[in-house]
Amino acid sequence: MKNFSSWLIAMFAFMFWGFRLVGTVLSSIGIEFMFTPSNMTMEIVLLFLTFICICFMIKRKLLAAVIYLIAHFMYYGPSFASHLTQIVDGTIDATQVMGMLFEFFALVLAIAALFDVLLDKNRKAHPTDKKTDWFYKNKAYDRKLDERADKNNYRTL
User: CB-based burial of residue 56 (10 Å sphere; 0-12 exposed, 13-18 middle, 19+ buried)?
Assistant: First the structure.
C-alpha cells in the first residue's frame, strides 16, 4: 500500500469496524447508542468477517475486497433501501436517519475499498521504486562501473 488513499480507506474501515463493535456490545448489554443492530447474530458474524477482510485488503487481496463488498451489501443494503422508501413516504424519524447514515457510509466504504484494490492490482504487477530503480535499471551506471573495473594495477610481492 503505497498510496495515501489506500491508507485512509483502511483507517476508515477499521474505525467504522470499531464503532460497530462498540455499538453492538452496548446494544447487547442494553445500553442505548446511536444505532441498534437489526440482527445481532448477523452483526457479530459481520464484525468477524469484516476484521479478517480488512486485514487481507491491506495485503491487497482482491478476494477479501469482494467478500467485504458482498457482505456489506447483503447486510446493509436492504435496510438502506427500506429507509430510502421511508424518506419518499415521509415516515422516517431521527433514529432511522442516523441508521441510514451509517448504512450509507458502510456501503460507500465497501465500494471504495473494492475500487482501491482493483486499481492497485496493475501497479502491483509492475512495481517501480524510485529509491532503487536508478541503480538496478540504469545501464549507463553499469557501463561506467565496467570501464573502471580493470584499472586497478596493484603489485603483488
Answer: middle
Q: Where are the domains of the chain?
A: 4-147
C-beta separation of 121 from 6 below 8 A: no
Location of C-alpha cell 477482510 = 53
| 37-93 pLDDT per residue, tens | 888 999 999 999 999 999 999 888 899 999 999 999 999 999 999 999 999 998 888
Measured over the CA atoms of residue 51, residue 53, residue 59 and residue 65, the dihedral's sign is negative
pLDDT tens for residues 85-103? Answer: 999 998 888 878 888 999 9
Residue type, 74: M
What's the CA gap between 28 and 62, in Å, rounded? Answer: 33
User: b or e along 62-99 (b: 16 or more beta carbons within 10 Å of the residue's beta carbon)?
Assistant: eebbbbbbebbeebbeebbeebeeeeeeeebeeebeeb
Max intra-chain CA distance, the chain? 100
Q: Which grid coordinates belong to 62?
A: 482482491
**What are residue 66's phi and psi, to 5 degrees?**
-70, -45
